[in-house]
Amino acid sequence: MWKIRNYFVLFFLLKVVVAIPKFNKVNDRYHNGTVCPPATLHHTACPILCVKDQQQCPTPCPENQLMCSDGSCQTVCTQTQDSANKCASCSSRPGLNLKQCQPTPLYVDIPNYMPENATMQLYETCSIALKTSVYLTWDDAQVENTMIWNVCNAPKGMTFPINVLL
Q1: Among 58, 90, 135, 136, which has the highest number of CB atoms less than 10 A from its own CB?
Q2: What is the mean pLDDT of each run of 10 residues along the chain (166 residues)?
Q3: What is the pLDDT of residue 41?
Q4: Beta bridge partners of 78
């Protein structure tokens, strides 16, 4: 009888006890108090690089090929490539039409990743991988400054997601 009661108490305690640190952050410090080094964020997708003139793209097409609006290199561009352009427009910047530089996403590893500085670290790491120095998005796009990351925010006065009440 005692054994059954002990197993019941043990089972009950296992369901109640939670092992979340109360006085320290997870992965913040080692057991001896030294600060853990920042981690590396692996295989992070870069935003697509958009340009007004594809001559600005850091990776040109081979000779005898054209860079289509979707960033692919072809001998002849078709309507399919033009319609696949992910940089065609942004609702926060109507009227500014850009073309993308690469047809597939670029993945990078972000060393010394700090979540509070994640966006800038992503832009910096992607810029280094493409051998450029781009830190701008659609919000920063100017007519003369047209090499940006394809990060499109909501138009002024709107926030996403938009909830519809029925």
Answers
A1: 90
A2: 68 60 68 84 91 86 90 89 80 76 89 88 91 76 70 61 48
A3: 92
A4: none
Global pTM value: 0.68
Q: How many CA atoms lie within 13 A of 76 on its CB side?
A: 2
Q: Which two tokens stand for residue 98?
A: 């850009």
User: How far is residue 165's CA from residue 161's CA, in Å, rounded to a whole number?
Assistant: 13
Half-sphere exposure of 80 (CA within 13 A, CB side): 4
Helix H segments across the chain? 2-16, 79-83, 118-130
Task: Write the CB contacts of 13 (distance below 8 Å, at least 6 apart in sequence).
Answer: none
Q: What is the largest CA-CA distance in the chain?
A: 87
